[in-house]
Write a structure and sequence with these properties.
11 helices, eight-stranded mixed sheet, 282 residues, single chain
């Protein structure tokens, strides 16, 4: 039986997903494939590298470091999340990612990217996370606060713009069981963009009309996906893990209490759902 996990993004709300995965790792839940978006991809790779606790460890240690995620980084580098420090220095030196173990796991891992020129989703299979770091950076490249990521003559930004929760992609790959980890509570729906927000996006990406269209359509795409997820969950075709409480964490005003709350909520929700999850996976 092949099991696929679909991991939603959400910036630091992704710490919820890290908590869920760390609990399931402790319980030795076998996952054959992961399809991650944004923070879901960045944090999800640690499951296949056998590094539970790594995500919360470096976030607790560096959350106040201006080189990690800050307005200072945005001003001087054009990226809210600092490219050199957050994606490379931490990964290679300060809290090394175990790429060898990831490769030996022989698991399938996909990151969702949005092609800025086409406005469509692309699903990049990640073979070696450190070598493929630019793809992982691209899936989490938040519009307006991140420079466009250029790879092999293509331009990318946040995968969530084109496919926020790639559950349909997972189902198309015909896995036997699909588990979706969301970072918003039951009943949440995105609001349509305001005129001010649309104007910002239009001005910033005027050379990329299809990306503008995808950005404006994102709330509808997201809400339609959630409606489909609710139907699939009720019919037992998928299993959904979502926050039991609302998560509010500002990337620029985060505290250690915020970080611990989000992560611990993931741990506790996974624990409370574990019995039902085991039944679904069997």
């Amino acid at each position: 039986m092949k099991i696929c996990f679909v991991l939603e993004g959400g910036a630091l709300r992704g710490l919820y997903t890290a908590g869920v995965l760390d609990y399931l790792y402790e319980k030795k839940v076998n996952i054959d494939s992961i399809i991650g978006v944004s923070a879901g991809a960045l944090f999800g790779v640690n499951y296949f590298s056998n590094q539970p606790g790594r995500v919360i460890r470096y976030n607790r240690k560096y959350f106040k470091d201006k080189r990690y995620m800050s307005l200072l980084s945005l001003i001087f580098t054009g990226n809210l999340v600092n490219k050199n420090f957050a994606y490379y220095k931490i990964t290679k030196e300060l809290d090394p990612f175990d790429q060898d173990t990831f490769v030996k796991s022989n698991k399938d891992f996909y990151a969702v990217l949005t092609n800025v020129e086409t406005g469509e989703a692309e699903y990049k299979k990640i073979e070696k996370p450190i070598d493929d770091m630019e793809y992982l950076r691209a899936t989490s490249a938040m519009p307006l606060v991140t420079k466009i990521v250029k790879i092999d003559n293509k331009k990318y930004l946040d995968g969530a713009v084109s496919d926020s929760i790639p559950v349909l992609k997972a189902l198309s790959l015909e896995y036997d069981r699909v588990v979706v980890v969301l970072t918003q509570p039951l009943g949440y729906r995105k609001k349509e963009l305001t005129e001010k927000e649309i104007n910002k996006i239009t001005k910033k990406y005027k050379k990329y009309p299809k990306f503008i269209d995808a950005s404006i359509n994102r709330p509808k795409m997201y809400n339609d996906t959630l409606n489909e997820i609710d139907k699939l969950s009720k019919s037992k075709k998928i299993f959904v893990i979502r926050p039991s409480k609302n998560i509010e964490i500002n990337p620029l005003k985060k505290t250690i209490e915020d970080i611990n709350f989000v992560y611990n909520l993931g741990l506790s929700d996974a624990k409370s759902m574990y019995t039902d999850l085991k039944k679904y996976l069997k």
